[in-house]
Design the sequence.
């Protein structure tokens, strides 16, 4: 079984189909995963806020969890139902890390 690469947002890079191809993961890219190039962002807003602005190890330590940064660049093909389930899973993961 491979090691899980858990990110500050609660998402697992290990579950991403882009890992190892277009992306090395947020930790290795310091918050600039492959998708930032497609949305005109210098950094992932969640990573930037958590790591660079607040100095936290993950968003589960933030009193503002889950904030608008989690949906700012959402996948346009994702339904509201899938988005809600994904955010709930990420929030549970982050709360368990505290």
Sequence:
């Amino acid at each position: 079984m491979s090691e899980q690469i858990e990110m500050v947002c609660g998402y697992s890079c290990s579950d991403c189909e882009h890992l190892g191809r277009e992306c090395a993961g947020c930790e290795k890219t310091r918050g600039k995963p492959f998708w930032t190039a497609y949305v005109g962002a210098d950094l992932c807003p969640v990573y930037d806020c958590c790591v660079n602005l607040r100095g936290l190890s993950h968003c589960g330590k933030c009193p503002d969890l889950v904030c608008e940064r989690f949906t700012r660049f959402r996948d346009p093909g994702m339904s509201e139902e899938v988005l809600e389930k994904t955010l709930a899973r990420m929030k549970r993961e982050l709360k368990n890390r505290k």
Q: What stands out?
A: The two ends are 25 Å apart (CA to CA). Helices lie at 26-29, 36-39, 45-53, 80-97. Residues 13-91 form one domain. The chain is about 35% helix and 0% strand.
